[in-house]
């Protein structure tokens, strides 16, 4: 079996075998990638359009973080996924070394933005429970927007060394059919990135949701809270479906990437490559498919988003303003 990773510069020397089985497999992979790309782009365009169209969503700070996530996933669907369709058919990277390095950089940058954003979402939910009476003064729209700008800039700067030549070669993985940075050859940089991105994010997410569900359990158990005003505000806040919705979003993200992480760790510590057909393709694209699940979770667990989506559909379908207003009569956040 040939090496799983080849340099993008020499990608032209590798091609898919001419057997009917290999052709069917390559066409199937190309079709899967193309369908995923369309699903990711359409779903995130719907999310962005719904947020921008319905002004009521701007009242909650968490929606700015969700909008940032949707933008990151949309960019993945536009600039990462489509470039793997043609290589899936031909078995080689056709777009040159610079583009391969750029794709690898965009991948890790968007992934870092998602990780950081999930951390800010958990912090936002923690503050909503920890300080329910002062939440609106602590978490303002301007502050959340500043955190998102900081997130995008810091992620772009942290992930740029490979693009600027810290690691000069870009690798095209002909099993996963995607250009990926080889973190195993840059131990110091990889460790730094893990400490600065994964470390604070994972610790914050675990602690914040542990606190949220601990308070929810305490409230449900009937434990006495002496400050009645605080107890009332806390009960109202914990009833907000955003807590469960955000927790499921975070969990879906990590579960999507868990198989890829497990395979890479196993291969690293055992120093042997798993030879299971389609394994590497499956675990990588399962992780990327996380960019699509967000709309499913929002529709399932967010009444506010369902309302925004209905208003978006009515706005697109109802030509006249009078008809739109008539259709909106009786609609509320409870869907």
Automatic annotation (TrEMBL):
<dbReference type="GO" id="GO:0005886">
    <property type="term" value="C:plasma membrane"/>
</dbReference>
<feature type="transmembrane region" description="Helical">
    <location>
        <begin position="30"/>
        <end position="52"/>
    </location>
</feature>
<dbReference type="InterPro" id="IPR000276">
    <property type="entry name" value="GPCR_Rhodpsn"/>
</dbReference>
<comment type="similarity">
    <text>Belongs to the G-protein coupled receptor 1 family.</text>
</comment>
<keyword id="KW-0472">Membrane</keyword>
<dbReference type="InterPro" id="IPR017452">
    <property type="entry name" value="GPCR_Rhodpsn_7TM"/>
</dbReference>
<feature type="domain" description="G-protein coupled receptors family 1 profile">
    <location>
        <begin position="43"/>
        <end position="298"/>
    </location>
</feature>
<keyword id="KW-1003">Cell membrane</keyword>
<keyword id="KW-0812">Transmembrane</keyword>
<dbReference type="GO" id="GO:0042277">
    <property type="term" value="F:peptide binding"/>
</dbReference>
<feature type="transmembrane region" description="Helical">
    <location>
        <begin position="186"/>
        <end position="210"/>
    </location>
</feature>
<dbReference type="Pfam" id="PF00001">
    <property type="entry name" value="7tm_1"/>
</dbReference>
<feature type="transmembrane region" description="Helical">
    <location>
        <begin position="64"/>
        <end position="89"/>
    </location>
</feature>
<protein>
    <recommendedName>
        <fullName>G-protein coupled receptors family 1 profile domain-containing protein</fullName>
    </recommendedName>
</protein>
<keyword id="KW-1133">Transmembrane helix</keyword>
<feature type="transmembrane region" description="Helical">
    <location>
        <begin position="244"/>
        <end position="266"/>
    </location>
</feature>
<dbReference type="GO" id="GO:0004930">
    <property type="term" value="F:G protein-coupled receptor activity"/>
</dbReference>
<feature type="transmembrane region" description="Helical">
    <location>
        <begin position="278"/>
        <end position="301"/>
    </location>
</feature>
<feature type="transmembrane region" description="Helical">
    <location>
        <begin position="147"/>
        <end position="166"/>
    </location>
</feature>
<keyword id="KW-0675">Receptor</keyword>
<feature type="transmembrane region" description="Helical">
    <location>
        <begin position="109"/>
        <end position="127"/>
    </location>
</feature>
<dbReference type="GO" id="GO:0032870">
    <property type="term" value="P:cellular response to hormone stimulus"/>
</dbReference>
